[in-house]
Design goal:
Length: about 210
């Protein structure tokens, strides 16, 4: 009788068989297609942890970054993409990975009246992509995003210049407008910068004349 219960107990409490690497990969991909990115991340994380040397592990590492990106969890996506690049520097997906890191920064661009750190980080990442993989189709996309980043930076510097100008800090304003002219000459802001450079210089000269 005791033996029968023992055998029955073993049947009841026997753990379920773990899913294979392929099953987890397929599960993650299906969840990703259904835009259930949370579930996709769970499946791919299990795959990566349980089968780190599987042929599907690299796919899981990449798709974890993509899933975080689609959830707008940009910092988590950047960490996943950077880990992929560090582990697989020669993989054919690396240009895409670098591009996606840039996109994570780019998609967080702020309005010109706020700090532009993300614009600078996006710009640096896209520049790295173009420098290392100039023939990649992602390099072309990166150039388009770089133009937006540079325009943001130009308009931000002009905005700061206008802040100083309105506060009558004409020397500080002059330096900002000169930065716009020097660093971003072809982005549609240089005409306004030239105008205010002249106005600042006139104000500064007027103040010097009044003191003499």
């Amino acid at each position: 009788m005791w033996l029968s219960w023992q055998l029955l107990g073993c049947t009841w409490f026997q753990p379920k068989e773990e899913k294979t690497a392929r099953e987890l990969a397929e599960e993650g991909i299906e969840a990703f297609k259904d835009e259930d990115y949370r579930k996709a991340i769970e499946s791919f994380e299990k795959l990566k942890d349980w089968y780190p040397f599987s042929q599907y592990a690299i796919l899981a590492e990449l798709k974890i970054g993509d899933a975080h990106y689609h959830r707008k969890q940009y910092q988590e996506a950047i960490l996943a993409y950077e880990e992929f690049e560090n582990l697989h520097p020669k993989n054919e997906a690396v240009p895409y990975v670098i591009y996606q890191i840039g996109r994570c920064h780019f998609d967080r661009l702020y309005t010109v009246d706020r700090d532009q750190t993300t614009a600078r980080e996006a710009l640096q990442t896209f520049e790295r992509l173009i420098r290392i993989y100039p023939a990649s189709p992602y390099a072309k996309k990166a150039k388009e995003h770089m133009e937006v980043c540079n325009r943001n930076l130009a308009e931000h510097d002009f905005y700061v210049g206008m802040f100083y100008y309105k506060a009558k800090h004409y020397k500080a304003a002059l330096e900002r407008f000169k930065t716009v002219l020097r660093s971003y000459p072809d982005l549609g802001v240089h005409h306004k910068a030239l105008e205010y450079i002249a106005l600042c210089q006139a104000r500064i000269d007027s103040a010097v004349g009044a003191n003499n």
